[in-house]
């Protein structure tokens, strides 16, 4: 389920074939499924499937509790479920229009707590927070409890890349000038997709080792 979620969360890559006209160096991925964009249903479907697969993964981890045996792994499972629910909400409540592209569309707010002005910003923020919690908790489970060992190195490298891309993106969103905000977000989301796939493989490998004991 986690590997499939990682694949579906990469649906934005299809824009290189569909050619929406958005600049990948400077645009948000959420703009791909805004109300007036062509092929928006493809990206909405990708995010909804991501949410469904991660919710299924959370249930599979928690019931039966064979794969989660401590507070770190339980936290990771709950957090990835919260990510799934937030991602579905994010997909079903998209941005209505794009400022500067759609006639009559107001500028999107930046600065302090823009989440209070648009529900899509809130659901996006909740999804990012949830997957970060899952990453931290699953990494702690891998290192401190000897669970999901593939996450120790490969997953750790991917997590570090996601953190750096997130810092880059937040800084670019707050500063004036051209700091390739869109590229930063694509690295961030791409890293999250790879990390989910890593976690799925780690669970599979660890489960086989556990069963053989």
TrEMBL record:
The keyword Transmembrane applies. The lineage of its organism: Bacteria, Bacillati, Actinomycetota, Actinomycetes, Mycobacteriales. This is DUF998 domain-containing protein. Keywords: Membrane, Transmembrane, Transmembrane helix. The chain crosses the membrane at residues 42-63, 72-93, 119-143, 150-171, 183-203. The keyword Transmembrane applies. InterPro entries: DUF998. It comes from the Bacteria.
